[in-house]
Write a structure and sequence with these properties.
With 414 residues, this protein is of the alpha/beta class. Helix content is 40%, strand content 15%.
């Protein structure tokens, strides 16, 4: 008489605020569920532990390695540990000291079929739009995180907004110490493309990306309508290069938005990581669609990175800052309640005080509702990591603090 095979328990880690990687982890969760595996609330109980790593920044690489080290200490002897995500492609050397870890690039996760004797193949599981069943990467001990955040306070300045964020962080960490975290969101995420057409000199994430490929329009529209039927009200169009949508299939983002917004309903849309390059290139069409459907747009995230044309050229961002300002000022004039956010990098190699002042002027002139400010750092294999004239950490910290205050002072208030 044949015995039923034992049910495997699994536990999935992922960086929770990576919009693309966390969806891949959620797909992984659904794949395991479809194949009869069982999620557990403690990695010690898991037969299979999979870490969707992040290697885009030094800190997220640290979180990925910390998670791996924690797992190797607490796992049972028979459990398997899998490392996937960006880190193996960005800095595989960081993983060489760890024996017994199965490294699987994200694009090769179908290998799991043979590992778990899958009834439902990995490739038959659709991309996820809902985050579920995923646990945040381990960020270190509570004390270590407290020190890290106190250091951040010293750099940026202890204003009211940061205090609110800091309290939220403490609540999350207290919850984390008491057990498992599954994070659920009210936003239905729709991936519009894979890969990136950019070649930014500071970016290592592109090394872990596939060749750029747009998702067919019909598939995106069908996914959007499915989300509406599930009573979602908030949607986010996301991709590593959202603004480049359609360039490989003879359409563009404006056409896609026109078709999506033609759907009746009470909903809001976020456009994530719309490179200013595409805003300038396709501005007339985009303006028409955005103006016509302003009430359906929650926010647009436009990473600009710098207010200096010289730095933008060194970054290979492919746009002129005056053209970007012209487009954004026109949007703000004609769609006054449009919520615009941006990212600014501080301390790119050779950034002068004049270059920095141009970024400061950018925030003053455009008054974004939110600004993510981060310091430049060398990442393996990037062109910028080989550049000379690096900016000291002391100077970068000073500039971050000044920009953070300016972002708060000049922020557009709704």
């Amino acid at each position: 008489m044949n015995e039923e095979p034992a049910v495997l328990n699994f536990y999935i880690y992922c960086k929770k605020n990576c919009p693309r990687r966390v969806l891949a982890a959620s797909r992984n969760y659904r794949y395991f569920i479809e194949n009869g595996l069982r999620p557990v609330d403690d990695p010690k109980k898991a037969d299979l532990i999979i870490i969707h790593s992040c290697g885009g920044f030094k800190l997220t690489e640290e979180f990925s390695i910390s998670t791996l080290e924690k797992v190797l200490k607490i796992k049972s002897k028979s459990s398997k540990v899998i490392m996937t995500g960006c880190l193996p492609k960005i800095n595989n050397k960081a993983l060489t000291p760890y024996d017994g870890v199965l490294i699987i690039p994200t694009e090769d996760l179908a290998i799991l079929d043979s590992l778990i004797h899958a009834r439902t193949p990995y490739d038959s599981i659709p991309e996820s739009s809902i985050i579920h069943g995923v646990n945040d990467l381990y960020h270190g001990t509570f004390i270590k995180n407290l020190r890290r955040n106190l250091s951040l306070v010293r750099v940026i300045g202890f204003n009211g907004r940061l205090l609110t964020a800091f309290k939220r962080y403490l609540r999350r960490k207290m919850h984390h110490t008491s057990g498992n975290i599954y994070f659920h969101e009210e936003t239905y995420k729709i991936v519009t493309s894979e890969g990136c057409l950019g070649n930014c000199t500071f970016c290592a994430i592109k090394f872990a990306m596939p060749v750029f490929q747009s998702v067919p329009e019909e598939q995106i529209i069908e996914n959007f309508r499915f989300g509406l039927k599930q009573n979602y009200k908030n949607f986010a169009l996301t991709g590593a290069d959202t603004g480049a949508y359609g360039i490989d299939i003879h359409t563009n983002l404006s056409n896609l938005l026109e078709k999506l917004f033609a759907t009746e309903g009470n909903y809001k849309m976020i456009l994530v990581d719309l490179n200013a390059r595409w805003l300038v290139k396709d501005y007339e069409e985009l303006f028409f669609v955005l103006k016509k459907n302003a009430e359906k747009i929650s926010k647009i995230i436009l990473p600009i990175q710098s207010g200096s044309n010289r730095i933008l050229r060194l970054m290979k961002r492919h746009y002129n800052i005056d053209e970007v300002k012209k487009c954004i000022l026109d949007l703000q004039k004609n769609i006054p309640n449009l919520n615009l956010e941006t990212h600014i990098m501080v301390g790119f190699p050779s950034e002068t005080e004049e270059d920095f002042q141009m970024s400061l002027n950018l925030l003053r002139d455009l008054q974004f509702s939110k600004v993510e400010i981060y310091k430049y750092e060398d990442r393996p294999g990037t062109i910028a990591s080989k550049m000379t004239d690096k900016i000291s950490d002391t100077t970068m910290n000073k500039r971050v603090k000044i920009l953070a205050k300016a972002a708060s002072d000049f922020a557009y208030r709704f």
